[in-house]
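Okay, any thoughts on this one?
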Amino acid sequence: MDTVTKPAQAAHYSFFQGVERNFDKASKFTRFESGILEQIKACNSVYSMKYPVRIGDKIEVIEAYRVQHSHHKLPCKGGIRYSMDVNQDEVMALASLMTYKCAIVNVPFGGAKGGIKINPKKYTPFELEKITRRYASELVKKNFIGPGIDVPAPDYGTGAREMSWIVDTYASLKPGEVDALACVTGKPVTQGGVRGRTEATGLGVYYGVREVCNVAEDMKKIGLSVGIEGKKIIVQGLGNVGFHAAKFFYDNGGIIVGLAEYEGGIYNEKGLNLYDVVDHRKSTGSLLNFPGATNFKNSSETLEQACDILIPAALENVINGSNAARIQAKIIGEGANGPLTPDADEILGKKGVIIVPDMYLNAGGVTVSYFEWLKNLSHVRFGRMDKRFSENQNTSILNTVEGLTGKRVTDTERSLIMHGPDEVDLVYSGLEDTMISSYHEIREALLRVGNGVDMRTAAFTVAIDKVGVAYEELGIFP
């Protein structure tokens, strides 16, 4: 995800306490007794470590964490982030959100998260590899990683490269383990990764917001038309999540009016050409001074400009009690983890803003990670078994129809009809189905609970119900 200067919080509670506050708000709408609710809320395992790595001619002590929030289903699942902001509270909060996120999108994992407190830009690739491999070996020592135990993934500051180092380290320490590739997801495709994983979170953001915009009843309440086309959108962050979310909105008729990054933001009410902006930033090193756009040296000011949809896809707490009242968007889609504080939720909720919560909206990454994990366990590429069968069957049907009607379709139509699904087609299809069905589960809970409850509370209610049922079925409460 993207680096953004974090404004001061208006309230004095930690990130994890903020998650707990949202949990407590939702738990009263569930049927579970307080003991089960406390077990669901608690982090089951917290591994804090420090280990030495030689950097240049000095020894540097690296601070790192891995938190397993819930063991109601195994393996646990969650990314690893590299940032100087990493601390135990943040990792615990993100791990807990992963539990609820997996439950909402019906991915059978418990939540986890990892972090290493470093600035990755300070190190050479060789030094980062040493830090990463040693972290992986520490996880192996304590049984905190494995295809059926805990499966990390990329997060802020990490990517496919780091995941390939981790899987190689794991495999070297577990010789002969046939499912070793499934110990981590987000790998390069050549190392067992799945096609579509890179853009998965951003695509999930698009699918989720699109489904919100497709509900005519809800759009009427906030004075917007149905669908994405023509909606004015501001995206904060042009990293992996932000860029791909912006790309799918832009390619499907949305109007990108604002973009923000750590160096500042730009805005043009008539719309920005996303690809031209990306080229401009590559050539100049900054979003600022893009032709025809207004500059904002403070990136957070960009979020306060007029738009229909706002996508904060950076770090947590960027919209809080101090700036929420100035947000003009009618729909806020949380592409990042925890970009709104509880104070911001209350302020924006009173204004009638639809807040699509992170624990649902950015679940595209973990959903496709689940598909990658399944691929690694099955040892076969998606589409390998049925692609040619589908193409042959479609060809036979098309030839029959053409023979009966005496008409011939165009070459373009023929290509579309005959096409058998590739791996990326199946991944996109699975993700789209997941985001659509999960949104309607949340909306049904929202309508059922009623009484001014927001979508975040409804999403927590759905998650708590699913995790609570899993704990009950495990029979672990004597």
